[in-house]
Amino acid sequence: MLNFETTVQDSKSYGDLTLSEVEPILKINLRSNKREFSTKIGKLLSIIPPIEANTSSSNEDYSILWLSPDEWLIYSNNKISYEQQNLLEENLFKNISNMNQGSVTNVTDHWVMINLKGFKIYDLLSKSSPYDFKNFKMKKGSVAQTLLNHTDVILHNIDDNNLNLFVRRSFSEDLWLWINDSARFL
Amino acid sequence: MFIINCPYCGERDQTEFSSGGEAHIVRPKQPTELSDDEWAEFLFMRKNIKGIQFERWNHSHGCRKWFNVVRDTSNDKIHAVYKMGEKPPANK
Amino acid sequence: MSQELRINNNKFIDQTTRLSFKFNGEKLYGYKGDTLASALLANNIHLVGRSFKYHRPRGIMTCGSEEPNAIVQIGNDPSLTDPNVRATEIELYEGLEAFSQNCWPNVKFDIGGINNFLSPLLPAGFYYKTFMWPASFWEKYEFFIRHSAGLGKSPSKPDPDIYDHKYYHCDVLVVGGGISGIMAAKLSAENNNETLLLDDKNTLGGATIYQNNDCFQIDGTHTNYWLEKEINKIKNIKNLTIKTRTSLAAYHGYNYLLAKENLTDHLSPDERKGKIRQRLWKIRAKKVIIATGSIERPLIFNNNDRPGIMLSSAIKKFIDFYGVKAGKEISLFTNNDSAYETAISLKKSGVNIVSIIDIRDKSSSKIVKEVEKHNIKIYWKHTIVNTEGYRKISFIEIMKLSDDGSGVIGKKIKLKTDCLGISGGWTPMVHLFTQSGGKLKFRSDDNVFLPDKNKTPSDQISIGSCNGDFDIKDIILNSNKDVKTFLGIENSSFDNLKVESSKEEMKRNIWLLPSDKPIGKTKPFLDFQNDSTAKDVKLALREGFKSIEHVKRYTTTGMGTDQGKLSNMHALGIIAETTGTNMGELGTTTFRPPYTPLTFGAIVGRNVGEFFDHTRKTAMHNWHVQNKAKFENVGQWKRAWYYPKNGETMFEAVQRESKAARESVGILDASTLGKIDIQGTDASEFLNRVYTNAWSKLAIGKCRYGLMLNEDGMVYDDGVTTRLGEKHYIMTTTTGGAANVLTKLEDYLQTEWPELDVYLTTVTDHFSTISICGPNSKKILSKVIPNLDLSDEKFPHMSFKNSIIDGIKCRVMRISFTGEHSYEINIQSNFAKHVWELCMDAGKNYNITPYGTETMHLLRAEKGFIITGQDTDGTMTPSDLQMDWIIGKKKFDFIGKRSLYRSDTIRDDRKQLVGLLTDNPKEILEEGAQIVEKLNQKPVEMLGHVTSSYFSPNLNKSIALAVMKSGKKLKGKKFFVPMENKNINVTVTDTVFFDKENKRLNA
């Protein structure tokens, strides 16, 4: 199989704060404004796409993040094989896109996922994000799409002081540099 | 910097949004039947009011949805936000 | 130097920590807790600078940000030196070095001082009037004026310090940590509000924290002790964050405020290392409480600017807070009661008070009676008519005021004094309030502009002396009441305080105090920093300036780094008096942010150097770096520009790359192109509407080039779209246009065509694109993907195949931007570098040549393919580009269709795309060069300009694309491209220079 090469390939600690790129896991973008879409996804993945804004739903295998009233991001919580990824994508495509229930797009390499952990992560983010994290940080599963150092990011609260950050691959090295630079001065 | 209450995501900083100019200018259904002047009216003519103005905004760094805003351009106060396709609130 | 001016037992100054510093090269000492100003005064140094225009000696006048005179240059390191620093605000640290500004050769002997004697020749507007003619001389004048005027030197080298930004969200922001701010912060935080309290000083408590006076008591203790206890209490409230050394710079709408925190400016250079110097806080507060206090006004009288003349409140702070006597024989000059507080403080510390000169008839308030007990001579209804002393005040001359205050009467009395405290009442600091959009009202009792409660933006209040309460009793009562109402609090610990104060009963104000000399012979300074006098304001009025904003600019009153904090009110007062206008109607000048100067460092924060702009990188970036590519910025992308070998120039490298791509095979990283995945039952209809050509009949597996217009009919973007399935397309956009195209398409889907069942998802970063082009491209691809049938029948030009490389799925398109037989491999980005390397390996025997954007541009120009944004500029229709073939005339509608036959877009003489050949084939045109027909015409008519120009190695001649008026009709005609030293002869040609029959696509 071909070698894969991600952008950051690193993990750093600054005191209690740790930053690390999470090995590429499956990410699929879903769009739909169809009524049956939700139940279809429920059947396929045993998980219902959230309707409430800025939230997510998760089971053991997958998380689905709300991105907009007709858009969601699925990611696998664990690394799965390339073949499994393909199977899942094809299955979704067959049942959703082909059945006129919406769109299914593989975005695994579109996004780089960085995990931020530690009680100062919100101090770090506040250095360049205008987002008010007050509610976000209190509620596990919260999702926020906002700006960090003028770059689009998706943030997913997975636990207390523990979140996954999604940034577009082409911006990821740049943002990683900024995050590390800022982490020095917390 | 305003705070804009995105009808989908809630209150966010203005930096997450981009402005799309005057709202409720409907693209003609049959442009080919219009005279030059009528087409120019749609294409170029905008109000630019001092006072209450109906505007289009896009939550470009969030949910990417377009929506409408009622803003007083003299003091930037936002009186209402509403989704595309919804009727504008009655002028206060 | 001894510190005989220093008093002992002062809790704000740590007299056990002695700090050495230098002022104008002289080594001096101060203590931890001092400001530069207090340390200088303790060393008996008043003279710190020269005034801006007349170069008059000037001394420390205040103890805060309103300081007009004591502005100094800190340090002389060319990268760290800091100009225009107020000596009253900079905290002393070990090794501080400060220099006077605006004086040469030194502050004690300044050659510019001659301007003082020439001052009758230098009235307001002197520079405007004198240096107007001849206009061409301005540059010469400017050099000398700037040279003699300069306020400090800016650093000449890059700033090595680190600055930072931080967003902060809170329920309540309290600006100012004086007594009312402390009360507000406590009430707010105790009642469940996340509260942020800011103060620009290093110590909370404002002026009350050192107000140790029997006349002012709260619950039986002196106000300072009471406040100290309150401050200790609030330090433990969980909801409250306190930031000192943090000054509010700007107050914008929606309670968005900027504040600058000084983190290291008070530390010695050694202690600063590796730390952030300043942080700009970007604060969003649900509610804002402004408690910024007030500053004392000076009095305007003849020669009121000598060193040693200070605000009475500053003298009080220097003695009570810093433990420094501003003089040994001090006089006070006042129109209100507050100077009497200073008198008591001085008396307590054993300073001799020569006299108090009060313009009022009498005052019988408690504090005045207290002073009278000390047998201090008070001259009621007197004014100062003159002062003496060059480098420092030595004498004052006083006379009795006439009843109406317009003149003086009686005998002149001369008093020896080495320091004069002046007090002209108080000005509320309403800057932030007005910045936020609040409107002021005028209170004529004491001539102050106050926040108008009815014209206050919602979610904010002003409390304390910035709201016009100057009596401690009113401050406490009203602050408590207003904060409770504002925050909806029922009971407060401040409800039943017993407050004692001295009520001021008698007021008198004279904006310009009379002298025994005619006004023309006096120097009553208004704006100390800009050297404008009351005379100048009167002159401006005589010359017809009426608006306060005009008078300000003409006289420069209020235009210094202090922004007229001391001078504006008097300027207004004098204008109102002279013109017989009501001050309230006159209004104020606009208060613009920042309130105090901000460093550029704080404004930009970390967005400098490598963080100045984003850099986007492709998956093959590191390969390009390893192979010595030069990079070009395209939008935020770093794109490989060309790959110089063995010291090649750019020209040589591009010639080699261009030849190789046509003769054998070239490889290009095309990953930066925007890619949009389109799904939905109406996908074809959607494409019909957004592109000019027809899409419904495009077969699955086929690709098509599309041109996208704006509604005005102008070309907006272009690219190839591939039909992946019945309801599934992938669109490519230009690199720079990717984000805008997606936004535009979403806009149409969401607002104009919500009925269409179409979903867009960007996959620009998911897929990387490797473009292989040239006659040997097929051989390379067959090695990389052996199973794929590459025959023209199975895989013709403008088609696509799904395939697999070493177990990984990919999409291969046979499309061409160079006119050569070529393929584009799209593969998930994390595998792309490996595929690129496989291609390089496969091409070893074919001299596979990586090429960059420059070669790509050259190759497409040989074919006459446009680049949107280079050959178009938002004013070109498809017809202007000679691309009428791409317009689906039969289509009912598409974006921009109607505009294509507006009267303006069908004009014959629009600029149209043409090819240009130079008569001398070796001569290369410059992009942007103008094209003319007649050389001797004046003014010469510009017929168009060159948009793309290259030397084609494949044609062995120079080629260019240009846009020209009526270009379509000009084929074969000759024109000139005039350059600086020569005129280049050119001939208009077809836009396609190479392989006009497109034979090479299937070669």
Tell me, what's the shape of chain B? globular
Largest interface: A-C, 50 and 50 residues
Strand arrangement, largest sheet of chain B?
3-4-5-6
Look at the structure and name the CATH superfamily of chain B.
Folate-binding superfamily
Percent of residues of chain C in helical segments? 10-25%
Strand fraction band of chain C? Answer: 25-35%
Extract low-pLDDT stretches of chain B. Answer: none
- Kindly provide the name of the CATH class of chain B: Alpha Beta
Q: Total helix count of chain C?
A: 24
N-to-C terminal Cα separation of chain B, in Å? 24 Å
Describe the structure concisely for a colleague:
By secondary structure, chain B is mainly β.
List keywords for this structure.
heterotrimer; A: 186 residues; Gyrase A, domain 2; 6-stranded antiparallel beta sheet; 5-stranded antiparallel beta sheet; globular; B: 92 residues; mainly beta; 4-stranded antiparallel beta sheet; two-stranded antiparallel ribbon; 10% helix; 36% strand
What is the strand and helix layout of this fold?
The complex is a heterotrimer of chains A (186), B (92) and C (1003).
Chain A: E1 11-14, E2 17-21, E3 27-31, H1 37-45, E4 56-58, E5 62-68, E6 71-76, H2 82-97, E7 103-106, E8 111-117, H3 121-126, H4 134-138, E9 143-148, E10 151-159, E11 162-168, H5 169-183
Antiparallel strand pairs in A: 1-2, 2-8, 3-6, 3-7, 4-5, 5-6, 8-11, 9-10, 10-11
Helix pairs in contact in A: 1-2
Chain B: E1 3-6, E2 10-13, E3 18-22, H1 36-44, E4 52-58, E5 66-72, E6 78-83
Antiparallel strand pairs in B: 1-2, 3-4, 4-5, 5-6
Chain C: E1 14-23, E2 26-32, H1 36-42, E3 47-50, E4 57-59, E5 71-74, E6 82-86, E7 96-100, H2 114-117, H3 126-130, H4 138-149, E8 162-175, H5 179-190, E9 195-198, E10 217-218, E11 221-222, H6 223-234, E12 240-243, E13 246-252, E14 256-262, H7 269-272, E15 276-290, E16 294-296, E17 309-311, H8 312-320, E18 329-334, H9 338-348, E19 352-358, H10 366-373, E20 378-380, E21 382-388, E22 395-401, E23 408-416, E24 419-423, E25 426-428, H11 431-435, E26 440-443, E27 448-451, E28 460-462, H12 472-487, E29 499-500, E30 525-527, E31 532-533, H13 534-542, H14 548-555, H15 568-579, H16 583-586, H17 600-604, H18 621-626, E32 630-634, E33 637-642, H19 650-663, E34 666-669, E35 674-679, H20 683-690, E36 703-709, E37 715-725, E38 728-733, H21 738-752, E39 759-762, E40 767-773, H22 777-784, E41 799-805, E42 808-814, E43 822-828, H23 829-842, E44 849-850, H24 853-862, E45 911-918, E46 930-931, E47 944-952, E48 957-965, E49 974-978, E50 983-989
Parallel strand pairs in C: 1-7, 8-9, 8-15, 9-12, 15-28, 17-24, 18-19, 18-24, 19-20, 34-44
Antiparallel strand pairs in C: 1-2, 3-4, 5-6, 5-7, 10-11, 10-29, 13-14, 14-15, 16-25, 21-22, 22-23, 26-27, 30-31, 32-33, 34-40, 35-38, 35-39, 36-37, 37-38, 40-43, 41-42, 42-43, 45-48, 45-50, 46-47, 47-48, 49-50
Helix pairs in contact in C: 5-6, 5-12, 8-9, 9-10, 13-14, 13-15, 19-24, 22-23
